[in-house]
Amino acid sequence: MAFISCAVRAPTCACGWRPGCHALHFLVLVLALARSAASAAHRDVRLGLYMPASKDLTNVFTEDQGDFFLASSAMSLLAVDHFNARDPTVLPVLSDAYSLDKCPIQLNATLVDTGYTATNVMSQYVKRYSDPAMEFDAVVGAARSACSMPLATLVGIDQIPMVSYWSTSAKLEDKGAYPTFLRTIPSDSAVSFAAANLFDGFGYDTVCPLLRRPTSPSTPPPPPPHQQPP
User: Could you give the CA distance from residue 93 to residue 202 in angstroms, rounded to a whole number?
Assistant: First the structure.
């Protein structure tokens, strides 16, 4: 596969990672993949969207969280439609720098349900060896680092570019293990380094991190805190 280098600047977003803004971020992903995965002779890019699109994710998330991921999956398909139609509603650049005469590429996307588990991701990906419909030129995903790591290993063997939108594990920085893995979100190590520099710039010498423990109907309650003697 021939690779064409390109730089895509993410559009400014004032609302953070709200579901209504995901189409904008997914459009950045598909723009990057369209330029990097397609050679001059290959105009139709087969794109695999590895998303947690299960109708019932209550074994991992609450109902509202499950709806959030379903909305994200819908946004990824909307982003593909916007790219193929060169609809500038979200990204004005689609009608200029990525117009059909300058970038004659169409995305043929397939939504692949990861089920938010590594086992399901791998079982879905290996279908490509027996099902032509599952053969992709590029992959978007996965959301969870635990899913992206085995997926990145497999796509690396097959020399397929992969871009994740939420996987932040520092382990994915290993280009020897994951040679074709990219992401549009900073890794945990980058965020930690930036936070440490920020605290140092403010002159803080003591920092207390607060962690939010994920909750779901299947998650047992945390153990009671240890009682310290008076």
Answer: 38
The model carries a pTM of 0.75
Which of 138, 140, 188, 190 is CA-nearest to residue 164? 140
Q: Which CA distances in Å does 79 have to 10, 26, 82, 83?
A: 14, 6, 5, 6
- Cβ(125)–Cβ(154) under 8 Å? yes
At position 183, the amino acid (one-letter code) is R
Q: Under a CB-based contact definition with an 8 Å cutoff, are residues 177 and 154 in contact?
A: no
Write the burial class of residue 182 (CB in 10 Å: 0-12 exposed, 13-18 middle, 19+ buried): middle
Cβ neighbour number for residue 134 with a 10 Å cutoff: 16
CB 156 within 8 A of CB 136: no
Q: Confirm if 141 and 159 have CB atoms less than 8 A apart.
A: no
Tell me whether the omega of the peptide bond preceding residue 142 falls within 30 degrees of 0, making it cis. yes
On whether the CB atoms of residues 139 and 122 are closer than 8 A, the answer is: no
pLDDT per position as a tens digit, 139-157? 998 988 999 999 999 999 9
Q: Which residues of 196-209 are buried (b: 16+ CB within 10 A; e: fewer)?
A: eeeeeeeeeeeeee
Pairwise CA distance, residues 203 & 64, whole Å: 40
Per-residue pLDDT of 110-121, as tens digits, reads 999 988 889 999
Q: Going by DSSP bridges, is the β-strand pair 162-164/106-113 parallel, antiparallel, or unpaired?
A: unpaired
Cα separation of 226 and 222, whole Å?
Answer: 12
Model confidence pLDDT, tens digit, residues 173-217: 999 999 999 998 899 999 989 989 999 999 998 888 887 665 544
Give me 209's structure tokens: 């991190």
